[in-house]
Amino acid sequence: MKLAKIAGYAGLSALVASVVIACSQTTPPAGTNPTTSTGTTEKLSGTIAIDGSSTVTPILEAVAEEFNAAQPDVSVTVGTSGTGGGMKKFIGGELDMAMASRPIKDEEAAKLKEAGIEFIEIPVAYDGLTVVVNPENSFVDYLTVEELNKIWMPGSKVANWSEVRAGFPNEPIKLYGAGTDSGTFDYFTLAINGEEGASRTDYQASEDDNVLVQGVKGDKGALGYFGYAYYIENKDALKVVPIKATNDAQAITPSEDTIRDASYQPLSRPLFVYVDKKKMEGNAALKEMVRFLIQDSEKSIADTGYVPLSADIEALVWGIVESGKTGSRFHGSTVGLKMTDILAAEGK
């Protein structure tokens, strides 16, 4: 396995948590409220097209519903094509906003540049990729990254639970995981197999996490992975699997706390939306929805099962939007990412 890259993903999640701590030292100017000060009472109209990650979809659906309560004349459509599928539509100019469960790829950013599309990158929440088994599974108390790698690595022939660990029963294992257009697939394969896109192919794949949930629910021998919110929504019908980052590490269960502080490793991650800057500048409804997403959606995000950003991070992200800063602060930074690098970039 390429442990440097795995460590890099850990660094990405830890960085986001670190930024929360660092930014908590920043005090808003007296008399201002960074959560509501830029809101509008103006009635807006228009259309907003959003597509992409099925992991991020619950967030945007919840936010869109709440936004429409305040702005009923704005039509917001939220599609689910997977991170890669949404990016293709974004590059093609079909979308105002693309949802992504991993940072934008360099090749995607290059294609956007060729298409003349400037984008603004917006972290919206924290997630922890959650490994689950069927609730009738009584023997899996945790799994190590090494065991997950043994199961999921390219060319793996593991077909029975007894092949995963001595003492596990001689029962067939059925795998459910993200499709190749999914950012979850990219993230999981890099974190577990050490290389983005490196995976065995003989498993039930889907970009729709609900399909994976139903598969694990209905199969006694199942093992699957998907976003934390889909586990929370179905936790009474699934069994969560704690993860050991190394064989001698403590087994950590994904939770709001372990995802926020990045102790759930290597599967904690930030979630993103990417907004077309030019379209936002020409669409007051889109600009207001972006503001609403960043500043007024903490409860909606928490209700979906994901972990909201802090108020200080929200203020930092809104400052990026207000200043019109384009490009990615996370792309190409899955190895050795440091908070000082981000701060230096923001200072330029």
Question: What can you see in these coordinates?
Answer:
Mean pLDDT is 85; it is low at 1-10, 12-37 and 333-344. The protein has helices at residues 3-23, 57-70, 82-91, 106-114, 145-152, 183-193, 209-217, 228-233, 256-260, 277-281, 284-295, 298-304, 311-323, 339-347, and strands at 46-52, 74-78, 97-100, 119-128, 130-133, 143-144, 174-178, 204-206, 222-226, 239-240, 243-244, 268-276, 307-308. It has 2 domains: 3-127 and 268-347, D-Maltodextrin-Binding Protein, domain 2, CATH 3.40.190; 129-259, D-Maltodextrin-Binding Protein, domain 2, CATH 3.40.190.10. The longest helix is centred in the N-terminal third of the chain and has 21 residues, at 3-23. Helices cover 40% and strands 17% of the residues. The protein is α/β, with parallel strands linked by helices.
The third-level CATH topology of the largest domain is D-Maltodextrin-Binding Protein, domain 2
Task: Let me know the CATH homologous superfamily of the largest domain.
Answer: Periplasmic binding protein-like II
Q: Structural class from helices and strands? A: alpha/beta
Portion in beta strands: 15-25%
Describe the sheet with the most strands.
Answer: 6 strands, mixed
Q: What is the approximate shape?
A: elongated
SSE order: HEHEHEHEEEHEHEHEHEEHEHHHEHH
Give the CA-CA distance, first to last residue: 36 Å
Q: According to CATH, what is the class of the largest domain?
A: Alpha Beta
- Rg result: 20 Å
- Largest sheet strand order: 2-1-3-12-4-13
What topology emerges from the helices and strands here?
Layout: H1 3-23, E1 46-52, H2 57-70, E2 74-78, H3 82-91, E3 97-100, H4 106-114, E4 119-128, E5 130-133, E6 143-144, H5 145-152, E7 174-178, H6 183-193, E8 204-206, H7 209-217, E9 222-226, H8 228-233, E10 239-240, E11 243-244, H9 256-260, E12 268-276, H10 277-281, H11 284-295, H12 298-304, E13 307-308, H13 311-323, H14 339-347
Parallel strand pairs: 1-2, 1-3, 6-11, 7-8, 7-9
Antiparallel strand pairs: 3-12, 4-12, 4-13, 5-9, 5-10
Helix pairs in contact: 1-6, 2-12
